[in-house]
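User: I want to check something. If I give you two sequences, will you return the structure for each one separately, not as a complex?

Assistant: Yes, each is folded on its own. Here is the first sequence with its structure:
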Amino acid sequence: MKVVLAGGTGQVGQVLKREFADAEVVVIARSEGVRWDGRTLGDWVSALEGADALINLAGRTVDCRYTPANRRAIMRSRLESTWALVEAMKRCEVPPRVFLQSSTATIYADNYGPAWDERGVVGGDEEGVPDTWRFSIDVARRWEEAAAESPVRTVLMRTAMVMSPDRGGVFDTLYGLARRGLGGPAAGGAQYVSWIHDGDFARAIRLLISDESFSGPVNLSSPNPLPYAEFMRVLRDGRVGLPATRWMLEVGAFFMRTETELVLKSRRVVPGRLVDAGFEFAFPEWPDAARDLVSRRA
């Protein structure tokens, strides 16, 4: 099997490199593998020839303050890289069999009601939500639209937070908060967390590559999202966790140079299409997943 990772230098790229250790993995990125600026066509296009899958992970990190300059960089990096990959596939004599395009579960509206599968309400039109949340949804929508002219089967991966033991990832950040006594309820803690264990994420990617019935949006998430307060209680494992109000979170995010959306937005998403296809999660429940991640982190 030949798998091409576009921009595969981050946490999710590390997860997929481990999963496909038995395959030929080609990374095209600015700093690793076949060099690519994320915008223009070049000699790297030949790396796509005959690939079983092209997985697009390219894009500037969203772990930053959403200043005007950062917003432009976040949007441009996703659109320009996707447009370039689509054009590159069109130029291949033997294009990749499938294009897995990154997206995000953040595309769905803030939700405290019944969990949403792929038929859930795409956000952006709600009243009273922060402008930064609208921006994230706009990015997700346009990122998916940028893949519309792909010449091959295309899957839009609406991915929840991928929990892996890798340093610098989202699990590492949240576990660090829990260990320092800062993982108490945030703004009440009723907001839902949608997540997926890295092993289940990687196995789901294999399914999306091999099963040609998959195209369009697919939610990559555990079937059991849970409220933030419960999510962090599991991580604290008996430790005290100081609660935080919304204004405290805003102050903390300002000094950490990030946004509060990760914590405050309620994402209640389930993997309808994966479940319908008979996919079996090794870690469907957060307590078991957390124990595994902590043991592997150590």
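And separately, the second sequence with its own structure:
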Amino acid sequence: MKVLVHKATQYWWPALKLFLLAACFWYLFHKLQQYDTSIWQRIAAKLSFKNVGWLGVFALLTIGNWCFEILKWKQLASTVRKLNVTESVQQVFAAFTVSLPTPNRLGEYAGKVFFYKKSERKKILFLNAIHNGWQFFTTLLFGTLGLILLSSKNLFRFNMREMMLLGGIFIGLALIALFLRKKEMGKSGYSLQSLWRKAFQLSLSLHLETFGLSVARYACFATLFYLLLKFFGADISFVETWPYLTTMYLLVSIVPSFVLADVVIRGSVAVWLFSLLSVPATVVIATVLSVWLLNFALPALIGSYFVSTTRLPSS
């Protein structure tokens, strides 16, 4: 029987890796087709020696974004087994590859558990939820502050009906969470209540460090977005831009995306928000594409190597 299981593993694991890589490259191909030739020309025109200083700054911010993500995962995953930087790099980039063509990047969970024994995978799923939870909390925190500031400038006006609708949505979500708090989610064995309880079992220093690294990572990709807007010709200051920037990241984080639909969602939200600052749509779209290439496409291509070379750990 063990021989048959081993034989089956020899076939399904390479087939799964091939499928994941094919899905990733298919997604990249279709994503890049969404952009008009004029956007590519705008980007290509900026890739010259006279802009090498700008390009160097973009490279540093991109690497910083990756490094904070890698360090954050290293600290969390080390509570299961000691993880070195190289192993964290492999797992983070492989997760990028697997998650890219999946809705709301859910494939990131599967991309990481493949590196662990079956006995460790349940804990890894939990830690990845903590990992993403703190990043989302950071986005929610800064996005809410940005939204409040924009509302104070009367850029967003909410009447009583809209406020009641919004309140009703939050109350409804709270009631659903209350109802489902003891129900297990899928085959993970975790319920909302158990996740909350296990989260408090982690040390306070680990939570603070994860939150700090999440803020540092947020600062990197938010600054990168702003500087790319300036690079492509937007005449805006950081002080007037950051509320729009944080609001944009909040909106694209809470709106569900389904594979290629996220192209429309992210681009449309950015174009709409920055049109309020009179930033041309072509500048915004060139920025969105550049950020996506640096923070998603490039890590996914690097991760494709780690996916192709990954071996299932012995149980």
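Because they were folded independently, the notes below concern the second chain alone. The chain has one domain: 2-153+205-309. Residues 2-153+205-309 form one domain.
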